[in-house]
Amino acid sequence: MTDDDHTPDTLVTALDSLLERERNALLDGALDEIGPLMEEKAALVARLAEAPPEEADAMQPLHLKLRRNQQLFDHALDGIRNVAKRLGALREIRDSMEVYDAQGRRASIGGEEKSRMERRA
């Protein structure tokens, strides 16, 4: 990077562009792109901390975008957790299922028997 790449205005512009790419990746569900973007974002934020812009107002749009992206991250994580819970519940049902009989007693119904293949030499 040249010295021009380290000016506060250039760093703000680069971070702004990166936050838009991060937002698009989150909206598209391209979670594999998030890791490299996070590393790049951390490097830009560190450089920006060393050379902050003269006017604090220049940081306000970045702050808003950072908050917006954090909300998207939170929602994505909630979605992943919900899917994991649902898959766990489906796995549980496949193994066995709890039901109630006509008298209101709980009973367990076994799931599908897994076929086992026996090998003989």
Number of DSSP helical runs: 3
Strand order of the largest sheet: 1-2
Reported for the largest beta sheet, the result is: 2 strands, antiparallel
Mean pLDDT equals: 85
How many structurally independent domains?
1
Shape: elongated
Strand portion: 5-15%
| Number of strand elements | 2
**Strand-and-helix sequence, N→C?**
HHHEE
Protein name: FlgN protein
InterPro entries: FlgN-like_sf
How does this structure look, described?
This is FlgN protein. One of its GO terms (biological process) is bacterial-type flagellum assembly. InterPro entries: FlgN-like_sf. This protein has about 120 residues and is mainly alpha-helical. It has one domain. It has three helices and two strands; from the N terminus they run αααββ. The chain has helices spanning about 10-30, 35-50, 60-95, and strands at about 95-100, 105-110. It has a two-stranded antiparallel sheet. The model has no long low-confidence stretch (mean pLDDT about 85).
Features:
mainly alpha; two-stranded antiparallel ribbon; 3 helices; 2 strands; 61% helix; elongated
Write the layout of secondary structure elements.
Layout: H1 8-28, H2 34-50, H3 60-95, E1 96-100, E2 106-110
Helix pairs in contact: 1-2, 1-3
Quick structural overview:
This is FlgN protein. The chain is mainly alpha-helical. It has three helices and two strands.
